[in-house]
# Entry
Amino acid sequence: MRQAIQYTALVVVFLLAFGMFYDVLADGGYRKRNRGYQGGLHQGDNNDDRDADLKPVANQTYKETCGACHFAYQPELLPSASWAGILGNLGDHFGQAVDLDAGAKKTIATYLTDNAAEHSDAKLAVKIMKCLRGQTPSRITEIPYIRREHHDIPTAVFSLKAVGSFSNCSACHKTADQGIYDDDNVAIPK
# Structure
């Protein structure tokens, strides 16, 4: 009888040890995904679960109002504090005065802040948030990650008539309006 108890105890210890070992191997990355926003990863984040691309602009007021003068950037390209700063300084919107009625401004502000980079699981948005480390740039072109991605492009390219400036994403990123900024869809004008 004593031998049976020892054998049972040994089996229980083995199963417990195997269970812990199995849990470590088979957690599917659960622990890594659920550490919160550490190292630039959003809570519940996992490389396999993230969208590769940003969401296309879905707000008609934003698209028509802001897109009338420049490319309507996806909200995921900046944190909400940056969007708030931009909308709070429309009297000098990068050298131009922009006059918006209160309703349009509120609609645009809500759309941009609710869909800003820190609320996105898209890979690009996560990389943007990670590199900012609490900074609130007023321009997408000030984001360190964006600057690094474009470091090997000669500055003369941004002066070409077909490009105009570093902020004209759609000049080279042919699928930018769809939220796709990968290298496969880039054609740099000559």
Q: What stands out?
A: Residues 60-185 form one domain. The chain has two domains: 2-33, 60-185.
